[in-house]
């Protein structure tokens, strides 16, 4: 937060009414929330969960205002004590597999950063075809057993990636073209809609807080904007999930898991078609 405040003016956002006195079911579970906005930031929010001697979670994301086509900062760290499941990325707002202009604009300069960490924090194994579309060529997707050295590397990667994002924010100029703003808003809404429905963290939240509270945390805190930034539904964006009776398939993937290795080469080209 200090680092963020150096470059912008953060204004604290109140927690949604229903979450003000939220409580985990188990007294051994502590959690902490933060949320802010800033001139170029629609929502910066963080959720930390700690279960004594067991689990630790950080879910930290920054969503730009629709006037900016900046990537979405995404740090999702889950630790069960032994096993760590990590996603750290500047999630692209627009497709970087087919849209070269967007990819070049934000990621070309960051490729060396991605390369610095891709050996230290190696690819975490098969990823779903759906998730890969939300990730950038510099994504850190990794799993490791806890050790001080791995945690140090991850913390350093977190600092480097976040500084890189702050720098992009600093340089970003406001879009004035109404169509482009709409395009940015819809892309962010699609992202929020995806994560509010399919985030792998949901079962954990449900276990800790119960179904109702977990839904509230997801829709009005973690992915706030899902109900206000656009009108389209999950099935409008992701029709492949529609069941015969019109409901949403509750599987996380309909495409299946692929991408056993990093589907980006060192120049940032997508090479996943060979595996996918
Ligand atoms: C697993 N979390 C995963 C996996 C991914 C992510 C890719 C591997 C399983 C899979 O491929 O679905 C994270 N996936 C993401 C992210 C995006 C995405 C960030 O598509 C963004 C677009 N993880 C959390 C939080 C918790 C958590 C907050 O971020 C818990 C509160 C838990 N993630 C968690 C657990 C697993 C997991 C327990 C392993 C279990 C599983 O795979 O279902």
UniProtKB/TrEMBL annotation:
The keyword Oxidoreductase applies. GO terms for biological process: phytochromobilin biosynthetic process. Gene3D superfamilies: 3.40.1500.20. It holds the Pfam family Fe_bilin_red. GO terms for molecular function: cobalt ion binding; phytochromobilin:ferredoxin oxidoreductase activity. Keywords: Oxidoreductase. Belongs to the HY2 family. This is Phytochromobilin:ferredoxin oxidoreductase, chloroplastic. It comes from Acorus calamus (Sweet flag).
């Amino acid at each position: 937060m200090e680092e963020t405040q150096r470059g912008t003016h953060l204004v604290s956002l109140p927690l949604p009414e229903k979450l003000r006195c939220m409580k985990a079911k188990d007294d051994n579970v502590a959690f902490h929330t933060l949320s802010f906005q800033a001139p170029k930031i629609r929502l910066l929010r963080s959720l930390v969960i700690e279960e004594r001697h067991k689990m630790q979670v950080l879910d930290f994301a920054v969503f730009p205002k629709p006037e900016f086509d900046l990537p979405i900062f995404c740090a999702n760290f889950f630790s069960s004590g032994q096993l760590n499941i990590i996603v750290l990325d500047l999630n692209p707002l627009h497709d970087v597999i087919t849209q070269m202009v967007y990819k070049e604009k934000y990621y070309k300069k960051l490729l060396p950063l991605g390369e610095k960490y891709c050996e230290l924090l190696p690819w975490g194994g098969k990823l779903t075809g759906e998730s890969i579309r939300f990730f950038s060529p510099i994504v850190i997707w990794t799993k490791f057993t806890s050790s001080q050295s791995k945690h140090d590397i991850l913390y350093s990667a977190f600092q480097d990636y976040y500084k890189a994002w702050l720098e992009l924010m600093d340089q970003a100029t406001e879009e004035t073209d109404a169509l482009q703003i709409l395009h940015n808003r819809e892309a962010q809404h699609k992202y929020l809609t995806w994560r509010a429905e399919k985030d792998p963290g949901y079962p954990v939240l449900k276990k800790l807080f119960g179904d109702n509270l977990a839904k509230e945390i997801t829709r009005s805190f973690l992915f706030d904007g899902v109900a206000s930034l656009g009108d389209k539904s999950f099935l409008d964006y992701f029709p492949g999930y529609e069941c015969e009776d019109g409901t949403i398939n509750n599987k996380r993937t309909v495409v299946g898991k692929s991408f056993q290795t990093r589907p980006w080469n060192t120049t940032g080209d997508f090479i996943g078609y060979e595996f996918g």
